[in-house]
């Protein structure tokens, strides 16, 4: 490498979120291509990639310069003066002290900045100045800004102050970003001369930088779109928005030398600075706080005491000696590896959680294989009972940190984290940052917006990008696979522009947030080890390094996972205990009620041999049951018909790509349809519980131990090597395995066959500890559903109270699967959350869309206030409701949803009148509550009695179809009826089946192709792994619904089919349904608009029941007008049955002429005032 001539000292990577577009790999590649020995990364207000950059550049042979562009609050506003925006300076770490100070300053940027604007003060720069080189920030820096604002004296004074703060370490930064006219930006023109003059006057060196944001000039337009995404601007807004130019790219040394030919020292100083910055961020060994003076002794004490407590209440899986021997062994390994403190820290916050009735999961991951964890109550799974291996968790032959993943109740995990903060100190505990990327669909939507394209067009383009798995394919891949997308790009320049920009920015980091579970605990303030970031929405700072790099910086991660299922279990049990019923009655008559504060979680005390639970599993009635609610799992359950917890453990492990092909063999052996095949007599006992199949990683380890004499630690290393398919390791291990097997009397051929078998299954095998822990949680939810179905489903729905798609599925399960009545939302019967009354499920007010549980609780509180009745004092009228509930606090939008859902039906059955009168009712309520608040209450009357009741809107109610539509808007699905109800007769006459009938036919015949009338929702185009285009959608009718149903159009039918689904939501489909192993497997074969199919399916006519003679005239006028306008001939007869209240008898009226009758007309007639019922003739 020749002598360097220029080093870039101001580069923004993609970690300058939605600002920088330089990827680290690209950066290091360009540096080496340009023969530069070093480069600085100076992301805006962060050190997100400091350690990653150091490690990556080392591999690329580049010297990293750790820096940061820091926003400085340089201006103190006078009274009445507007505060100036912070301006940037560049700080570069010379050494470890400088890096530590840079971390401190980065923490100052965010922590406790209540206005959400990252900035540091000049005083903070002064406090943490050691070991840092400062570049003044160029024309846009604080000194440049003062010059631009015509305050040269203040600018000079600030420069002199910076010189004092950074003696011999301050460089006056110059930038030249030439425009089309050859000149520089206006700010650069205004500031360069004073910069140079003052530098010479004060003896300060100059330095040239190019403020780099993207790799090459041709990315400028795409990068400008990226800036617009961040700023909520449009690309056409040029002034005064744009501050960057096409020149903000990664220029070569030659280009920079030419640009500053008149100031060569400014170029030379970049190399001088690089030589002065010899520091590289480094990795550290794990650092933990000290839990006790003698952690070894403390762990032993707690472990032996815990063993006594556990053995006193469980039915042991072995002798006490076996438990003691296992405990001694594990303690020895933990002490040898130096991890007693880690176990004590985890045990402490879990014990605190349990003592405070915060539900904690029985275990997760390999940690459930530790007896020490079990006796410390970190886990609730006896590893001897389930034959779990400690070495799978902590291998003495492979030193690595243990890692307990802990599940907590979703609603209360924050309380445990707060306890940890209080115990160790808030400054020693932090969350972990995580980054979101700009994926293809989001890139198209965001760039379409900044290009000001119509929303509908952008939405259509985004939907043309297929999804593989859970992620959309790249724009490049979508263009290759989707002809319609290519056609759009060819036909319209703006679409081509969008997709071009999108390809340049997709994959860049978009935003920072905090990791859902990860928390670090340190022995010192965390900002001494890593820089900190703070999300404005969070009270707790987070590390600026993500999960991977924070651990390499020496911080130990603890996972506080929020598991919704634990919240479901607790919610269900609360409803059971609220009813006064026991959770469980044992065979001897012992009743299990809620234990005292801090007792064993009662769900852990239920029996694991409940016949009703295993019948529920066998019948696959497992909607909402943890781990087994997917259609594939239900199919596997019907095959397996579990009879013990070991079956559930095996199924959790087997139900994954690869191993699931062994489920039929497992089931056949279990049910005696196939003989259990012996692998070898020495290891058959290891495979007995899994019907002769290797299911678990632990079995691989045990086989290596028993057959070939491996230690369990060595067997774990073998398992890892096999799982990762490391050929060199396999070649070395095979002869070792064969030799060990020979010592146990196994011949070489058989040993080699077993080795091949292990090699195959090591890649597929599942962690048994994790499977067992999650099988127990699954069993607990299954037990609750089998024994307390209403309370369980209420608990499930409470945990998904804002997810209407899921509530729709659960409501269907409650009504049809469990045959439990759902009481519709009602201000007099419902709570804010789902409730159980008389073993019926009462729909939650808080489950309505756009209402919020808190707002609904105001209504419930008003109803309960001053009443000892269980449901409170019912509201009598709308005026009574407005007097007792402060409707202004509830909000008009939530009240509209209540009206749409029929929650006021007991107060006024005319939903439209209620809806249209809400403004008057809110004003009336506000006036009453203002009087109450100001104590303007008569001694002899209630507040508001003197206020006149407002007049309600004089409107007729919504027609039946409108009521359903409005109800669906509020609830999110159809609860009291279905939009296809009016089509039922026409569909039946065309011999078109219901979903329930299609499923019954497939079940009876094994397979069936049936025409079904359905309502379509959630329609979306997809692409298979092989590139085949297809559709997925949800379909429903009044008998049920199916989610995620696929349709693969025949060749040439993709576009016409797409158009049908785009224009029609009521369709008739040809549904091919197969019923195999008890599982209904549907697929759509063809589709047609329902209105076309039933156009000639009018019935013989209608019989219309009315309680108002005026309705006869209205209906007759409607039918006459429609018939005159219709294209098809009239065929339907119409008769009326008039039954007014003041008539002694019913009066039948036959209309002589025929009419055109359709399902839509029938629905319209049902909505007329005075029409009681409409029947098909």
From TrEMBL:
UniProt cross-references to SMART domains, sorted A to Z? POLIIIAc
Q: Which CDD domains match?
A: PHP_PolIIIA_DnaE1 (cd07433)
Domain Polymerase/histidinol phosphatase N-terminal per the UniProt entry, residue ranges = 7-74
Quickly give the catalysed reaction.
DNA(n) + a 2'-deoxyribonucleoside 5'-triphosphate = DNA(n+1) + diphosphate
Q: What is its EC number?
A: 2.7.7.7
**Class of this enzyme:** transferase
Q: Origin, by domain of life?
A: Bacteria
Q: Where in the cell is it found?
A: Cytoplasm
Pfam families named in the record = DNA_pol3_alpha, DNA_pol3_finger, HHH_6, PHP
Give a Gene Ontology cellular component term annotated to this protein.
cytoplasm
Q: Name one GO molecular function term.
A: DNA-directed DNA polymerase activity
Q: Which InterPro entries does this entry report, sorted A to Z?
A: DNA_pol3_alpha_NTPase_dom, DNA_pol3_alpha_thumb_dom, DNA_pol3_finger, DnaE2/DnaE/PolC, DNAPol_HHH, PHP_dom, Pol/His_phosphatase_N, Pol/histidinol_Pase-like
Could you tell me the Gene Ontology terms of the biological process aspect for this record? Answer: DNA replication
The protein's UniProt keywords, in alphabetical order, are:
Cytoplasm, DNA replication, DNA-directed DNA polymerase, Nucleotidyltransferase, Transferase
**NCBIfam families, alphabetized:** polc, PRK05673.1
As for what it does, the entry says: DNA polymerase III is a complex, multichain enzyme responsible for most of the replicative synthesis in bacteria. This DNA polymerase also exhibits 3' to 5' exonuclease activity. The alpha chain is the DNA polymerase.
Annotated family: Belongs to the DNA polymerase type-C family. DnaE subfamily.
- State the oligomer form and interacting partners: DNA polymerase III contains a core (composed of alpha, epsilon and theta chains) that associates with a tau subunit. This core dimerizes to form the POLIII' complex. PolIII' associates with the gamma complex (composed of gamma, delta, delta', psi and chi chains) and with the beta chain to form the complete DNA polymerase III complex.
User: How is this protein named in the record?
Assistant: DNA polymerase III subunit alpha
Q: Tell me which species this is from.
A: Celeribacter neptunius
């Amino acid at each position: 490498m020749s002598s360097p001539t220029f080093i870039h000292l101001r580069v923004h990577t993609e970690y300058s979120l939605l600002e920088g577009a330089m990827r680290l790999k690209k950066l290091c590649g360009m540096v080496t291509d340009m023969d530069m020995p070093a480069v600085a990364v100076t992301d805006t207000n962060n050190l997100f990639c400091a350690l990653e950059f150091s490690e990556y550049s080392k591999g690329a042979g580049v010297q990293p310069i750790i820096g940061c562009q820091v926003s400085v609050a340089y201006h103190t506003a006078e009274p009445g003066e507007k505060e100036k925006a912070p301006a940037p300076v560049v700080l570069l770490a010379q050494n470890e002290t400088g890096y530590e100070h840079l971390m401190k300053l980065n923490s100052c940027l965010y922590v406790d900045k209540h206005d959400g604007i990252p900035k540091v003060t000049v005083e903070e720069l002064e406090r943490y100045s050691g070991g840092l080189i400062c570049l003044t920030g160029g024309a846009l820096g604080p000194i440049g800004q003062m010059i631009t604002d015509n305050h040269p004296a203040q600018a000079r004074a600030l420069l002199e102050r910076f010189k004092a703060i950074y003696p011999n370490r301050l460089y006056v930064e110059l930038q030249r970003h030439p425009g089309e006219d050859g000149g520089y930006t206006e700010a650069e023109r205004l500031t360069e001369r004073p910069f140079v003059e003052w530098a010479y006057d004060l003896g300060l060196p100059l330095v040239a930088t190019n403020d780099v944001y993207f790799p090459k000039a041709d990315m400028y337009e795409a990068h400008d779109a990226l800036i617009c995404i961040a700023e909520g601007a449009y690309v056409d807004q040029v002034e005064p928005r744009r501050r960057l130019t096409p020149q903000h790219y990664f220029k070569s040394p030659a280009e920079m030398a030419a640009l500053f030919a008149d100031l060569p020292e400014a170029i030379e100083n970049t190399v001088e600075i690089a030589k002065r910055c010899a520091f590289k961020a480094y990795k550290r060994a794990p650092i933990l706080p000290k839990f006790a003076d003698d952690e070894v002794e403390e762990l032993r004490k707690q472990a032996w005491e815990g063993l006594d407590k556990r053995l006193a209440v469980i039915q042991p899986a072995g002798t006490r000696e076996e438990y003691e021997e296992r405990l001694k062994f594990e303690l020895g390994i933990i002490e040898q590896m130096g991890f007693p403190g880690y176990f004590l820290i985890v045990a402490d916050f879990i014990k605190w959680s349990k003592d405070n009735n915060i539900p904690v999961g029985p275990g997760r991951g390999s940690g459930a294989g530790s007896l020490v964890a079990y006796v410390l109550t970190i886990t609730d799974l006896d590893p001897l009972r389930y034959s779990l291996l400690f070495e799978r968790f902590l291998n003495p032959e492979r030193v690595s940190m243990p890692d307990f993943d802990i599940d907590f109740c979703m609603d209360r995990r924050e309380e445990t984290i707060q306890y940890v903060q209080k115990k160790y100190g808030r400054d020693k505990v932090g969350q972990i940052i995580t980054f979101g990327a700009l994926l293809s669909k989001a890139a198209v939507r965001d760039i379409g917006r900044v290009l000001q394209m119509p929303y509908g067009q952008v939405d259509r383009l985004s939907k043309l990008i297929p999804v593989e798995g859970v992620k959309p394919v790249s724009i490049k891949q979508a263009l290759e696979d989707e002809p319609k997308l290519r056609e759009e790009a060819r036909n319209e320049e703006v679409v081509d522009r969008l997709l071009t920009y999108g390809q340049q920015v997709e994959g860049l980091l978009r935003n920072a947030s905090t990791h859902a579970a990860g928390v670090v605990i340190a022995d010192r303030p965390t900002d001494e080890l890593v820089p900190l970031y703070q999300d404005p929405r969070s009270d707790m700072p987070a590390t600026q390094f993500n999960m991977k790099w924070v651990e390499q910086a020496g911080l130990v991660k603890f996972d506080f996972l929020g598991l919704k299922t634990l919240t479901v279990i607790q919610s269900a049990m609360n409803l059971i205990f609220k009813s006064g019923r026991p959770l469980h009655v044992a065979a001897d008559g012992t009743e299990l009620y809620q234990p005292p504060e801090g007792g064993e979680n009662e769900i852990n005390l239920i029996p694991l041999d409940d016949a009703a639970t295993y019948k529920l599993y066998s019948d696959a009635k497992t909607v909402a049951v943890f781990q087994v609610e997917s259609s594939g799992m239900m199919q596997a359950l019907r095959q397996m018909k579990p009879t013990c917890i070991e079956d559930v453990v095996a199924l959790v492990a087997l139900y994954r790509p690869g191993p699931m092909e062994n489920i039929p063999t497992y089931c056949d052996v279990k049910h005696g349809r196939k003989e259990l095949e012996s692998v070898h007599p020495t290891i058959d006992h290891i495979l007995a519980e899994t019907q002769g199949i290797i299911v678990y990683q632990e079995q691989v380890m045990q086989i290596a131990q028993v057959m070939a004499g491996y230690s369990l630690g060595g067997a774990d290393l073998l398992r890892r090597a096999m799982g990762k398919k490391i050929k060199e390791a396999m070649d070395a291990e095979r002869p070792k395995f064969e030799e060990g097997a020979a010592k146990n009397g196994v011949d070489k051929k058989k040993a080699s066959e077993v080795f091949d078998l292990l090699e195959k299954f090591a890649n597929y095998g599942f962690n048994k500890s994790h499977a067992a822990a999650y099988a127990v949680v699954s069993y607990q939810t299954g037990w609750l559903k089998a024994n307390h179905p209403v309370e369980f489903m209420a608990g499930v729905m409470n945990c998904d109270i804002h997810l209407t798609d899921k509530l729709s599925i659960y409501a269907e399960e409650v009504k049809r699967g469990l045959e439990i009545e759902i009481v519709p939302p009602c201000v007099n019967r419902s709570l804010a959350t789902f409730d159980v009354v008389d073993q019926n499920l009462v729909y939650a007010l808080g489950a309505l869309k756009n209402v919020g549980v808190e707002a609904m609780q105001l209504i419930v509180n008003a109803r309960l206030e001053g009443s000892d009745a269980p449901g409170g004092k019912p509201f009598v009228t709308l005026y009574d409701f407005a007097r007792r509930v402060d409707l202004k606090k509830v909000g008009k939008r939530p009240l509209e949803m209540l009206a749409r859902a029929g929650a006021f039906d007991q107060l006024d059955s005319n939903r439209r009148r209620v809806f249209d009168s809400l403004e008057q009712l809110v004003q009336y309520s506000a006036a009453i509550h203002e009087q109450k608040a100001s104590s303007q209450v008569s001694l002899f009357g209630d507040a508001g009695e003197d206020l006149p009741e407002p007049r309600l809107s004089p409107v007729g109610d919504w027609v039946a179809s409108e009521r359903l539509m409005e109800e669906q808007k509020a609830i999110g699905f159809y609860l009291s009826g279905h939009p296809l109800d009016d089509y039922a007769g026409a569909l039946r006459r065309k011999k078109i089946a219901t979903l329930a009938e299609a499923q019954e036919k497939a079940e009876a015949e094994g397979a069936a192709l049936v025409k079904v009338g359905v309502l379509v929702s959630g329609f979306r185009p997809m692409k298979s792994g092989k590139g085949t285009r297809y559709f997925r959608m949800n379909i429903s009718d009044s008998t049920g619904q199916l989610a995620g149903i696929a349709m693969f159009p025949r060749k040439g039918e993709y576009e016409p089919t797409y158009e049908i689904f785009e224009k029609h939501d009521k369709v008739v489909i040809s549904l091919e349904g197969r019923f195999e192993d008890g599982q209904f497997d549907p697929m759509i074969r063809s589709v047609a608009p329902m209105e076309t199919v039933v156009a000639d399916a009018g019935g013989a006519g209608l019989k219309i029941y009315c309680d108002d003679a005026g309705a006869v005239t209205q209906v007759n006028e409607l039918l006459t007008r429609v018939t005159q306008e219709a294209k098809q001939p009239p065929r339907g007869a119409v008769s009326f049955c008039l039954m007014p209240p003041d008539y002694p008898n019913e009066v039948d009226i036959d209309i002589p002429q025929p009419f055109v009758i359709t399902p839509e007309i029938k629905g319209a007639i049902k909505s007329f005032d005075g029409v009681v019922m409409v029947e098909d003739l």
